[in-house]
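Protein in question passed on here:
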Amino acid sequence: MSVITVMLPLALLLGFGFTAAFIWMAAKGQYDDLETPAYRLLLEEEPAETGSQRKA
């Protein structure tokens, strides 16, 4: 019975912590666009020019 007095508050604390983290990240816009990152891999980008490769 003494185990439940430790595990129950710990489980509630973890549950509230994960819920608070989810709400905070959703409010900051972390989950706004879920599709674009998957398509970004398919898009070709031009390589960035370095100082030695620039055409004068």
Q: What stands out?
A: DSSP finds two helices and no strands in the chain. Residues 2-40 form one domain. The radius of gyration is 24 Å.
